């Protein structure tokens, strides 16, 4: 229905050391090479811990795998006295195509604000990578019926300072917090409601081309068994997948999404 290439991104969170990462990426590459299925529809991305990235790079480059990869976070700073942080330049040098910013776990456990998330998105973009900007409401906001207002406000804050032309190339992930890691997947209609609202917000704030270009993902307990209904929605352009991305066959099922 649109020119947007579906994007399936597997967020491994704090799982798998670099040796385990190599095993999973090899299994995933094997799964995606199965000619009985059409895996060509989606762009497939893995998002391992920082310490795995060099090994993933070596494997992907050496075997010319069609899998891309990214990081789970990035510093807003370019270099210097920021102990423990990782710069966008370092990630770009490792061949990262994407950086997840503002994941709900970072907003919750590390106090990340929309302002910081925006700064991180800009840092990634300046270094030539595509930020995957995460937004989404918690259970109380959902129960109060404020989920659209809450989420579009997060989008406004997190995309602040980008031009319409830049936004057309970005990725926004709608992840209702109550559906992350809980097994409680949003219904396809719930996902569509908020993903459509995000696109409408981008249209109002930026322009038509930004709205048509930006890829809006759904995230929250996506599995091979429920991905088809979610992907059938007009404004859902892919999935950000946590738990199910740790198994090659399950994530493979998500990547072919029917
Ligand atoms: C996530 O952490 O981005 C996520 C969607 O997790 P899960 O798929 O495990 O709910």
UniProtKB/TrEMBL annotation:
Subcellular location(s): the record lists:
Cytoplasm
KW Cytoplasm (keyword) present: yes
GO molecular function annotation: isomerase activity
Per the record, the pathway is: Carbohydrate biosynthesis; gluconeogenesis; Carbohydrate degradation; glycolysis; D-glyceraldehyde 3-phosphate from glycerone phosphate: step 1/1
Where do the annotations place substrate binding?
11-13, 181, 221, 242-243
Any keyword S-adenosyl-L-methionine?
no
At the top level, the lineage of the source is Bacteria
Record: active site = 103, 175
Chief subcellular site? cytoplasm
* Chemical reaction(s) catalysed: D-glyceraldehyde 3-phosphate = dihydroxyacetone phosphate
Identify the Pfam families for this entry.
TIM (PF00121)
Q: Keyword annotations for this protein?
A: Cytoplasm, Gluconeogenesis, Glycolysis, Isomerase
- What EC number is given for this enzyme? 5.3.1.1
Q: Which PANTHER family match?
A: TRIOSEPHOSPHATE ISOMERASE (PTHR21139:SF42)
Which family does the record assign? Belongs to the triosephosphate isomerase family.
Q: Subunit structure, briefly?
A: Homodimer.
Report the HAMAP family cross-referenced here.
TIM_B
This protein is called Triosephosphate isomerase
What is the originating organism of this protein?
A: Nocardioides nanhaiensis
